[in-house]
Amino acid sequence: MTQKIAIVTGAARGIGLATTRLFLRESWQVAMVDRDEDALLEAASELTGVLPIVADVAKPDAVRNAIQQVSDHFGRLDALVNNAGVADFGPIEETDFARWRRVMDTNIDGVFLMSQAATPALKETQGAIVNIASISGLRASTLRVAYGTSKAAVIHLTKQQAAELGEYGIRANCVCPGPVRTKLAMAVHTPDIIAAYHDAIPLNRYGTEEEIGEVIVFLCSEKASYVTGQIVASDGGFESTGVGLPSLRGQS
Ligand SMILES: NC(=O)c1ccc[n+]([C@@H]2O[C@H](COP(=O)([O-])OP(=O)(O)OC[C@H]3O[C@@H](n4cnc5c(N)ncnc54)[C@H](O)[C@@H]3O)[C@@H](O)[C@H]2O)c1
């Protein structure tokens, strides 16, 4: 059996680390890309079948170098998971250009740069791209002017990739996680926001890193060989639901 290789960005912790573990369980090998060197090397030291690569996905030179390292080490690439992301919630009037750029750099430029650099290798294997957006890219909310807009852009970029790269047999799909208690979420989810999410989610809870990772690994696998251009929310039903859920829940 051919050894399958994935790149997971933002793999040092959270959803990216859980996804890396799930790939390893499925006998893939993983290039773990992250800009947090200490966290990355510590996470990678506990795993076998991984190549840690310290890189900032928002920097074109670092991206080119990372893809070259994957090619030198593994000689092939079957899937790219663009998971690295940053969250910064703030009002429109307080989101100065530097804050806006910080979010866009990683969340949208990083996805574009990594995907473009990985395309020649993915053409050879008819591989897959999975981009991680967010429910904040599907439904607008307050304080997410940069974050929500960056994630909506990731959703559309995925469709652009599917439209153009399908020609080469490359599939591109997008996963929109609901809230997961990672370092990223806990830095911006106040007690009020946590309570509001519970109210708005039919399954009435946060998701786990593994519940998101399972969807990502499925979309990268042969099991999803005819699935491309899709936006899959792994969100406990958040996106499908309108007003009235908490009151109806109270009556049941
Ligand atoms: N946790 C949630 O509730 C939630 C909800 C919806 C979407 N998401 C998305 O899921 C993805 C993963 O989030 P998480 O909660 O696991 O976050 P996290 O903060 O726990 O992990 C993100 C990782 O990405 C790395 N990273 C950030 N910017 C980078 C860059 N420019 N280059 C390389 N590495 C970089 C960080 O160092 C970190 O290790 C993000 O795209 C996030 O927007 C998360």
Written description of the protein model:
The protein is α/β, with parallel strands linked by helices and 252 residues long. Helix content is 48%, strand content 14%. The protein has 9 helices and 7 strands, in the order E-H-E-H-E-H-E-H-E-H-E-H-H-H-E-H. The radius of gyration is 18 Å and the shape is globular. The N and C termini lie far apart (51 Å). The model has no long low-confidence stretch (mean pLDDT 97). The structure holds nicotinamide-adenine-dinucleotide. The site of nicotinamide-adenine-dinucleotide (NAD) has 30 residues, from helix 1, helix 4 and helix 6.
Short description:
This protein has 252 residues and is of the alpha/beta class. The chain has a single domain (5-251), classed as NAD(P)-binding Rossmann-like Domain (Rossmann fold, 3-Layer(aba) Sandwich), CATH 3.40.50.720. It contains nine helices and seven strands.
Keywords for this entry:
252 residues; alpha/beta; Rossmann fold; seven-stranded parallel sheet; 9 helices; 7 strands; binds nicotinamide-adenine-dinucleotide
H/E element order? EHEHEHEHEHEHHHEH
> Which compounds are bound in this model?
nicotinamide-adenine-dinucleotide
How many beta-strand runs? Answer: 7
User: Shape, please?
Assistant: globular
Number of domains: 1
Query: What structural class results from the helix and strand content?
Result: alpha/beta
Biggest sheet features? 7 strands, parallel
The CATH architecture can be named as: 3-Layer(aba) Sandwich
Q: In CATH, what is the homologous superfamily?
A: NAD(P)-binding Rossmann-like Domain
Give the neighbour order of strands across the main sheet: 3-2-1-4-5-6-7
Radius of gyration (Å): 18 Å
